[in-house]
């Protein structure tokens, strides 16, 4: 298991690519989810493990007073750059470990994490922190991936890798990597209940992601998480090109007569009352 310093460095390393390739792909889901959770102008909104703005910038656009936290200083710097470019004045990015939020009790109307706390080694502690800083009667929102086999961005990539490297083992399944620790919606519900949340609503849906080229999908996977970067770390240049060719063939088949391929990602949305 990585130390906090190692985790910070790993995310710093991929932050530029994450900001360019991953964040834009999650904004439409964020906008839909903020409607579900009932965010309104003037509410105090916290985004935990926030990345570079996929959830918190849409929240700020709706008029919420937003604090966005992430362990990676480079992620937060990229987020703050997006904020400046949009001219938003109601959002603040802060470097912070989600396991130990440097925030007051009962400070927020809504505390949320989109594809964030699912990554953390001590998930119960992070959820407890989110509940602690949420006012009684406020809401906690968690968005997490479903099973890896139902996250097509990943399954396409792993399929292309397997074609090029027959002995490629893929991802471990027991236990699964941290990004998939909430792949079972019952696990998400159980963890939110244990954190003290009530009136739970768990919804499963398919997030859509659009790709026009193999290199776009390659860049998404290899900058989405340190695991993605690690998957290709040992490939030769020829192997990289062959994987990208395989991805291109798969995307063209999926796109049919269209100019872009639509890949769907199983996603769970949990909302509870503090």
Percent of residues in helices comes to 40-55%
Average predicted local confidence, pLDDT: 96
Give the topology string: H per helix, E per strand. HEHEHEEHEHHEHHHE
Strand order of the largest sheet: 3-2-1-4-5-7-6
Note the main attributes of this structure.
single chain, 274 residues, alpha/beta, seven-stranded mixed sheet, 22% strand
Structural notes for this entry:
The longest helix is centred in the N-terminal third of the chain and has 34 residues, at 4-37. The chain is globular and about 55 Å long. It contains nine helices and seven strands, in the order αβαβαββαβααβαααβ. A seven-stranded mixed β-sheet has the order 3-2-1-4-5-7-6, sandwiched between helices. Helix 4 links the parallel strand 4 (108-114) and strand 5 (134-145). The model has no long low-confidence stretch (mean pLDDT 96). The chain has helices at residues 4-37, 56-61, 73-86, 123-132, 152-164, 185-194, 214-224, 226-231, 237-255; strands at residues 44-47, 65-70, 91-95, 108-114, 134-145, 198-211, 261-273. With 274 residues, the protein is of the alpha/beta class.
Please outline the helices and strands:
Elements: H1 4-37, E1 44-47, H2 56-61, E2 65-70, H3 73-86, E3 91-95, E4 108-114, H4 123-132, E5 134-145, H5 152-164, H6 185-194, E6 198-211, H7 214-224, H8 226-231, H9 237-255, E7 261-273
Parallel strand pairs: 1-2, 1-4, 2-3, 4-5
Antiparallel strand pairs: 5-7, 6-7
Helix pairs in contact: 1-3, 1-7, 5-9, 7-9
């Amino acid at each position: 298991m990585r130390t906090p310093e190692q985790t910070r460095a790993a995310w710093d390393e991929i932050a530029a690519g994450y900001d360019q390739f991953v964040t834009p792909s999650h904004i439409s889901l964020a906008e839909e989810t903020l409607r579900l959770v009932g965010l309104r102008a003037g509410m105090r909104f916290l985004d935990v493990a926030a990345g570079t703005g996929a959830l918190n910038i849409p929240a700020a656009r709706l008029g919420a007073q937003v604090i966005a936290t992430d362990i990676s200083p480079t992620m937060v710097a990229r987020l703050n750059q997006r904020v400046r470019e949009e001219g938003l004045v109601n959002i603040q990015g802060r470097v912070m470990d989600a396991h130990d939020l440097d925030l007051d009790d009962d400070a927020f109307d809504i505390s949320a994490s989109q594809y964030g706390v699912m990554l953390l080694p001590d998930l119960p502690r992070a959820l407890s922190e989110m509940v602690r800083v949420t006012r009684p009667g406020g809401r906690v929102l968690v968005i997490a991936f479903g099973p890896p086999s139902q996250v097509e961005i990943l399954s396409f990539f792993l399929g292309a890798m397997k074609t090029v490297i027959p002995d490629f083992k893929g991802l471990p399944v027991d236990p699964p990597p941290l990004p998939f620790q909430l792949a079972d919606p019952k696990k998400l519900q159980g963890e939110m209940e244990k954190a003290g949340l009530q009136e739970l609503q768990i919804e499963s849906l398919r997030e859509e992601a659009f790709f026009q080229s193999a290199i776009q999908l390659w860049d998404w996977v290899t900058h989405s998480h340190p695991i993605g970067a690690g998957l290709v770390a040992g490939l030769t240049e020829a192997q990289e090109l062959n994987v990208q060719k395989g991805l291109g063939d798969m995307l063209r088949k999926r796109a049919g007569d269209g100019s872009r391929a639509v890949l769907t990602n199983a996603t769970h949305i949990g909302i509870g009352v503090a």
